[in-house]
Amino acid sequence: MTRQAAIERIEQYFDNGGFREDLARRVAIHTESPIPERRPELYRYLTDEMTPRLQQSGFTCQVFDNPLPDAGPFLVAHRHEDDSLPTVMSYGHGDVVRGYDDQWRKGLDPWSITVEGDRWYGRGTADNKGQHTINLSAMEAVLATRGRLGFNVVLLLEMGEECGSPGLDEFCAAHKDLFAADVFIASDGPRMQPDAPTVFMGSRGVFNFTMTLELREGGHHSGNWGGLLANPGVIMAHALASMIDARGRIRVDGWRAAPMSETVRAAIGRLKVGGGDGAPAIDPDWGEPGLSPEERVFGTNTFEVRAFETGNPRNPVNAIPPRATVWGHLRYVAGTDPDTLLPSLRKHLDANGFGAIELKSERDMMLATRLDPAHPWAQWAIGSLTETADGREVAVLPNLGGSLPNSVFADTLGLPTIWVPHSYAGCSQHAPNEHVLGRVCRDALRLMTGLWWDLGEGGTPAPG
Questions:
Q1: Is 13 within a domain?
Q2: What is the CATH number of the domain that holds 420?
């Protein structure tokens, strides 16, 4: 049997409705990890849905409780063919954000798949049930065609990624023996363009924090006290203006990224950002000056205000508010020391007269990682995807603009990390009306089948 035969098998799986059936069954499980009452559903996804399917393909499966209290469980599955073969670690997450059932467009249900043209709607279709279903189905096609994979597999499915992957690093650090592998290959996030096969080798980190200024208890009538009492909202607005200018340029010393290497700059130079249908137009004059839009999102650090609250926005009154709070975050690239970010901000605020603002970092920090595009495993993956891509150029990102728990795999487990995303930027991930594109799913099934086939053919990079 041949590589082409395996690809034709996976095409039939999609065309005959097998992929939609598998994905619909998984979407129907309400795995909303931010809702404590859904905890039994997190286990059910692993024990009732994923374990039986993996066992059919010769995997041994074990479900582990999270080492942190009230956090989602893990499934670890192994398929071992021979000690002499390469071992791939793969990953996915079966949990989803809240369904927001009443906010979906009329005729759509987050817990069932609705197909409208090329769009397949349903919670988790893009993030991440659809993506790991593609990868595992492609692996099944190779196994059915060749009779073996030609490589060993260790698979980790977690059920808390949408809560910041609590316990994931601790679990992997405590069970490194379970995850001995030569390379990490998984899928999450969007393609560069909907029809452009994409690979990225890391992700930007995310540093979330709050800024709070509380000047007094309770609000006071603005007619009686206006001009006499300092307004914390105004002070906070000026603090923000000292941190980022009117065009989005970061002004905090220690928050701007180091210059890009020539390898990274060259890889980014081949990219073109844009989310496809329904995506917002890019603001060309926003962000760090002297950089292309692609360099701004993939090659440097960006600061965003997630929320700003003072007074009562839902029911404003004519009073001077007692406090103001900003929820902010910095997306940062590899080479930025996350331990210096909060101290740098403290120093900046103090130097600019905002010493009364209190700072607090949030726990769910994800660290920045980046594998050089010239790494042998990166080049191998790019070559395999290119062979299946029918002449299309593969978009190569040194790192994703968003954040993933990739540092667990790259740093804690020490693996070269390859991500092949199967969604697109306009998918409404985390929002009502989440969806995938049918044509992208079919294309991704072909690409991953070719990649898994090539992994079992030999000629992979040497261990280490």
A1: yes
A2: 3.40.630.10
H or E element that contains 404: none
Compute the Cα dihedral for 408, 413, 416, 417 and give only its sign: negative
For residue 278, what pLDDT band results from cuts at 50, 70 and 90? low
pLDDT tens for each residue of 283-318: 989 999 999 999 999 999 999 999 999 999 999 999
> Are 199 and 338 part of one and the same domain?
no
Instruction: Answer whether residue 294 is part of any domain.
Output: no
Query: Quick one: 413 and 342 in the same domain?
Result: no
Question: pTM of the prediction?
Answer: 0.89
404 and 316, same domain (yes or no): no
Phi, psi of 135 (to 5 degrees): -65, -40
**What was the pLDDT predicted at 462?**
86
SS (H, E, C) 225-291: HCCCCCCHHHHHHHHHHHHECCCCCECCCCCCCCCCCHHHHHHHCCCCCCCCCCCCCCCCCCCCCCC
- Give the C-alpha separation, 233 to 381, whole Å: 51
Last residue of a domain, one of 361, 378, 405: 361
Cβ proximity of 398 and 267 under 8 Å: yes
Nearest-angstrom CA–CA distance, 407 and 162: 16
Residues with Cβ within 8 Å of residue 293, at least 6 apart in sequence: 273, 282, 284, 287
Which tens digits make up the pLDDT trace of 162-189?
998 999 999 999 999 999 999 999 999 9
Residue 270 lies in a domain: no
Q: Which H or E element spans position 7? A: helix 3-15
φ and ψ at 121, to 5 degrees? -90, 145
What is the separation of C-alpha 454 from the centre of its chain, rounded to a whole number of angstroms?
Answer: 26
With vertex at residue 54, the alpha carbon angle to CA 36 and CA 406, rounded to the nearest 5 degrees, is 60
**Which pLDDT belongs to residue 272?**
85
Q: Which of 210, 212, 223 is nearest to 320 (CA)?
A: 223
Residue 247 sits in which domain range? 205-257+301-361
Query: For residue 63, what are its two tokens?
Result: 């479900």
Q: Is the alpha carbon torsion for 295, 297, 302, 308 positive or negative?
A: positive
**Rounded Cα distance, 49 and 129, in Å:** 12
DSSP-derived letter for residue 461 is P
Domain count, the chain: 2
